[in-house]
Amino acid sequence: MKLTDPKECISAEEIRNQIDKIDKQIIALYGERHKYVEEIVRFKDDEEGIIAHDRKKQVISDRRKWAEENGLDAGTFEKMYQILIENNIKRELELLKKKKSGII
Ligand SMILES: O=C(O)C(=O)C[C@]1(C(=O)O)C=C[C@@H](O)C=C1
């Protein structure tokens, strides 16, 4: 991805173009991440396994740490990952239901 250095940008429009490029790429990566989330259901058998409480805690605490290491607000990333993981749990539970009823 070719980006102009933030300090080299000469207008708000140029800055916004860089932000759009970055977000497009981030979202494409979340699309990739989601494919793995959908496949993990092949290795899970029940609701407890889907929720994976300890893993969920670890994911959130690692992302908090990574956010801080990058000069970002840990609480913001914790909230984002809480929402993401809650949605993933819902999706995984739907897929588990389908798996159990033989649909997939
Ligand atoms: O690691 C798992 O078991 C997953 O299902 C992935 C994931 C995640 O999105 O990172 C989703 C749900 C779990 O609560 C924990 C983590």
TrEMBL record:
Gene3D superfamilies the record matches: Chorismate mutase (1.20.59.10)
Keyword Lyase belongs to the record: yes
Q: Which GO terms describe its biological process?
A: chorismate metabolic process; salicylic acid biosynthetic process
For molecular function, the Gene Ontology terms on record are:
chorismate mutase activity; lyase activity
Q: Which residues form the signal peptide?
A: none
Check the record and name the SMART domains matching this protein. Answer: CM_2
User: Which InterPro entries does this entry report, sorted A to Z?
Assistant: Chorismate_II_sf, Chorismate_mutase-related, CM_dom_sf, CM_II_prokaryot
Q: Residue limits of the Chorismate mutase domain?
A: 6-96
Q: What is its EC number?
A: 5.4.99.5
What general EC class does the enzyme of this chain belong to? isomerase
Top-level taxon: Bacteria
Q: Which Pfam families match?
A: CM_2 (PF01817)
UniProt keyword list: Isomerase, Lyase, Pyruvate
Protein name as annotated = chorismate mutase
Please tell me the species this chain comes from. Answer: Maribellus comscasis
